[in-house]
Design a protein that fits this description.
mainly alpha; 17 helices; globular
Length: about 350
């Protein structure tokens, strides 16, 4: 499989095209009155592009990330990308976006919230001074997500455990990582406590039947990813092998699902499923091996090593779809593809 650097140019072109394309746009938001029926950019001046708000946020994140690569340093598209990001991610525009989140506290929860935090993290980590300069003004977006998260968790009756945007574990893990970076210890503690309450007693996740025809996440692996960030090393050494005990390299959950109709926006989620599963495996396998090798569980260790043999096969359909002419995939898949490629290279 090609190195991440070989994907920088096509992914950057896709991301730049997406965040400068206004329509089609899916405004998933409840109108309170006719006053709310306005052009998307009036409500969301930064992220009214790339088909919907959350895809726009993580396509901005992708472009910020790509600009720190070696390939991007002399790329002909670099100046256009920087100018677009600086224009979109001004403090004034992100303050407006943050206000919209506060006024609509269940909107984009938790998936869009998570990518908003990832975007702020990426700005802080960027090697490009013009992007790092945006980070302090962008913190209003992350702080808004943090405040909304702390307010939401005590009211959450039960976690969402399916493979779509509202999956609780996927969002909380990314918000947790951002809260650590930005020193929001209250958020770190709130997420850790909630995760322990909701997931610590889970065992033997049923990977054989978790899939549906429009998932882009594995609920089981998302939960394992979150708990790997929350539990102590000793706790994880017990919890993780038990939770993943039903997963083998031959499990259906570790095989890509064929997309029969790429124009179907829901079915095209399956391209992202292979990529997100591959990314979770690459994060989790080293931790699982540490846990099972200490216990002498050779069968589980063999399974863990076998998981990594599925990664390339899982990733291939999504890598192709990320730069395809079919907008239902290309408006979002490249973000997941880039994350998996970087993990694979590392």
């Amino acid at each position: 499989m090609a190195s991440p650097e070989e994907f920088v140019r096509p992914f950057a072109q896709v991301a730049l095209a997406n965040i400068t394309r206004d329509y089609p746009y899916a405004a998933h938001h409840v109108a309170q009155s006719s006053a709310d029926i306005v052009e998307p950019r009036e409500k969301n001046p930064a992220f009214a592009n790339s088909f919907d708000w959350h895809s726009s946020v993580h396509m901005h994140f992708l472009l910020v990330s790509l600009l720190s690569t070696e390939t991007a340093q002399t790329a002909p598209w670099r100046d256009a990308a920087l100018d677009t990001l600086v224009a979109h991610l001004s403090q004034a525009k992100l303050t407006t976006e943050a206000a919209f989140l506060r006024e609509n506290p269940t909107w984009e929860r938790p998936y869009g919230w998570a990518w908003a935090v990832e975007l702020v993290r990426a700005l802080h980590a960027s090697s490009e001074p013009r992007l790092r300069d945006l980070a302090p003004g962008a913190e209003v977006l992350a702080d808004t997500v943090f405040d909304l998260t702390v307010a939401w968790l005590p009211k959450m009756a039960a976690p969402v455990r399916h493979g779509l945007h509202s999956n609780t574990a996927f969002g909380l893990r990314r918000i947790l990582l951002g809260a650590r970076d930005l020193r929001r210890h209250d958020v770190v503690e709130a997420i850790a406590a909630s995760a322990r309450c909701r997931f610590a007693d889970d065992r033997a996740w049923n990977f054989h039947q978790e899939r549906s025809g429009q998932d882009f996440l594995s609920p089981g692996l998302c939960e394992a990813d979150l708990m790997a960030e929350v539990l102590t090393e000793d706790e994880l050494a017990v919890w993780l092998p038990n939770f993943l005990s039903e997963l083998t390299p031959e499990s259906p959950a570790l095989k890509p699902v064929e997309v029969l109709d790429p124009t179907d926006g829901y079915q095209s989620h399956l391209y992202g499923l292979g990529l997100s599963v591959a990314a979770s495996l690459m994060r989790l396998v080293p931790k699982l091996l540490t846990a099972v090798e200490h216990s002498g569980n050779h069968e589980a260790a063999d399974h863990a090593r076998g998981f990594l043999t599925t990664v390339d096969h899982l990733m291939t359909p999504g890598l192709e779809a990320a730069v395809s002419d079919e907008y239902m995939a290309s408006h979002w898949v490249a973000t997941f593809a880039w994350e998996a490629l970087v993990l694979r290279e590392g």
